[in-house]
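Slide 14.
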Amino acid sequence: MNNNIKYRIEFTKTDRMIFIGHLDLLKLFQRSIRKAKLPIGYSWGYNPHQLITFALPLPLGMAGSGEIADIQLTRRMDTDEIKAALNGSLPHGISVLCVMEIEAGALGCAAAVAWGDYCVTLDKKYDDFEETVNNVLEKKEIYIERTVKKKTKTVDIRPLIRSIHVDNSGDVTEFNCNIATGSQGNLKPDVLIEYIFSLMGEVPDLLKTDILRGTLYTEEEGVLLPLCPEEKFI
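Slide 15: predicted structure.
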């Protein structure tokens, strides 16, 4: 019987850490957990591994300010103690913001995540961007072609867009959006950007576009709840 205590961790992935992939991030956390001497639980079998799960891997090169991981410890610890121990062993660019204990039967973060906040800064100011976004939000259906595993199909991405808010007050165009981010539905922000630009008759320069993923949410009866709600509320 597994009597491990489950904890949820919210952390940042910024600076040079945005250039390490998911497997390297996993190894980094495994080493940091050992260095912090946390009583991490291990799986059973011939090749036991630390019981740590990430909600949703970030694309290489994208920063995150509200990334989520679940770990299992063999004994109960104070959440502030866990936070301090991890922050003392993790490198610059990875910082633990929040640690909370979760119920033994609670849905794991990878299965629970459904929506995510994204902050996008474009390469310059686009005067017609806000009007274009308003037209997008008025649509009931948005069909685009997506290629997955060499198969192309037409999908409706409108249900995957919850909100878009544009700030055109500065020298560049910025917008915040809340879009589907999980196993039950997923809309990549670059796909949304490319669609909006196609309506303007332009092609975005994604290499000069900054994207920051913020809070990750689960959904209960139509209400969004942060996966680690100790620090953030909706």
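Speaker note: The longest helix spans residues 22-35.
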